[in-house]
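User: Please run a holo structure prediction.
Assistant: Happy to. Please share the sequence and the ligand.
User: Here you go; the ligand is magnesium ion.
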Amino acid sequence: MNESRGATDASAQRKVRVLCVTSSKGGVGKSTVAANLAGALAERGEKVLLVDCDLSNRSLDMYLGCENRAVFDLGDVYRGRTDASYALIRRPGGISFVAAPADLSPAAVSAETLCRAVADVISEAAPDWAIIDTSGPADGVPAMLASIARTALVVSGQQGVAMRAAEKTGDSLGEAGLDRRWLVINNFDFSAAEKGGRAGVVSMIDTCRLPLLAVIPRDESLAAAQESGALAAEAKAPSAQAFRNLAARLSGESIPLFYGMREFRRRRRYF
Ligand SMILES: Nc1ncnc2c1ncn2[C@@H]1O[C@H](COP(=O)(O)OP(=O)(O)OP(=O)(O)O)[C@@H](O)[C@H]1O
Ligand SMILES: [Mg+2]
């Protein structure tokens, strides 16, 4: 597995692996994947920084149960109102977190200044992994951060529009210079795929034209956990294993697609 090597001092010195999580389709689970991947990497003993860089729709502060702790955010670092250290929130579970700007319009943002703000928080946190949640290529953020994050996880659900968005997202990211792009299938409904009502894994790979890294099942207990600021693993939700598998693959381990997911392992028809 290749790693993203940032062009900034922060990533060059620490060899931090920087990923952005994205898709031009809203609500497919980008923030869910970013937060729970961060949790799964931290569970492996990695030092993880999670940056909410969704300038239109911030959510990670709530998903992490930190909304009352975000006194300063990425926008304050961007504007030079605060030092990066004050924007870092250390969350139980081994994740450092920077909340998204509350009032920074994607249209008005300077790519250079945004890159510098993200590089500053990475430098301050000195993580092994930096995971950046973005809205999608349309607001330009993944392209702006391309010098820092050259690896992208493109999240898609099984709906035709989500897959179309994932394909388009992959193309846009390629044009922006993100040369490592992976598909993460989220909210996968195994029984709908089995019955033929929804796309299966192989047809999703074909449609999205991206190499597959992980399949995260639809998991209502995960969605409920998020409402109270807990990660899948903290709520002992079944999907926690899928995030562990994603973290393991990103770390270079070669494991079966549904490793440890006993309830799904023996069935084949959803391919
Ligand atoms: N695997 C899953 N199983 C069940 N619910 C999920 C799953 N993934 C995400 N959800 C739910 O879907 C909703 C949208 O998820 P999320 O906010 O992560 O999407 P997003 O792509 O980041 O959205 P936005 O485009 O608004 O940033 C949330 O309510 C979340 O709890
Ligand atoms: Mg989001």
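Residues 26-32, 54, 57, 59, 135, 186-187, 216, 218-220, 222-223, 226, 239 surround adenosine-5'-triphosphate (ligand 1) (CB under 6 Å).
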